[in-house]
Amino acid sequence: MSDPLIQLRGVCKRYGSGAAELMALKDIALDIAAGEFVAIMGPSGSGKSTAMNILGCLDTPSSGQYLFKGAHVEALTRDQRARLRRRYLGFVFQGFNLLARTSAQENVELPLLYRGDAAATRSKAAARALASVGLGGWERHTPAELSGGQQQRVAIARAIVTEPAVVLADEPTGNLDTRRSHEIMGLLLALNRDHGITVLMVTHENDMAAYAHRLVTFVDGRLAHDVANAHPTTSAPAEPANAALA
Ligand SMILES: Nc1ncnc2c1ncn2[C@@H]1O[C@H](COP(=O)(O)OP(=O)(O)OP(=O)(O)O)[C@@H](O)[C@H]1O
Ligand SMILES: [Mg+2]
Predict the structure, then answer these.
(1) Domain topology for 6-228
(2) What's the predicted TM-score (pTM) here?
């Protein structure tokens, strides 16, 4: 067995101090292998987003260790963490987090701009990423001209345009209706199955968690359950016959 891609060892996260101190994460141990599709569940305030921010190298543990490909993330400088993030990680958020008044194409090109890619490279890669999420032909549209489901597709294109090893999605379907949610899950599933991308997804919905191969549950800052999903959903439901009327 090769080393896990991701390892949390005794990770704690403390917010505030004194009477206001709050332990958002308590002694978290978690190994994730390359190619896994993990759903993270648990009540509001249980520490899911705090864990995702640490896993996404956006924040650091108060104590404990985070190893990514065997490297100690907690010992990296802010710049080194940013570099790791740009090279290996893609993010999808509940609120899409697209730049308004900026075309889908330019939104998707942004991570490549940060990386210093040339204009022609950016343009080609972004167009390809948009096509892969079913948005070929929508490149010039701004977020305001797109539905919520389409905006989240743009966000997924932006997350994958750098060909990341891991996509971290914090409640990616939280703002979408059931049909759009399943469409987004179909895309995440394809990234995992067809491209070998490791997917870590926070969700409150059992129907969406059912796509994952592993279910991790946080309760009150602790990792309470970690179970395999023996029968994951393997395809998003087809469009209902009367979709045109929906
Ligand atoms: N920046 C912060 N400063 C202080 N406390 C915080 C901060 N971020 C989170 N917390 C607290 O840490 C705990 C865990 O929050 P977290 O956002 O990780 O929960 P969550 O499981 O993602 O919840 P939700 O399902 O509502 O998104 C909560 O009690 C929250 O109030
Ligand atoms: Mg959260």
Answers:
(1) Rossmann fold (3.40.50)
(2) 0.94
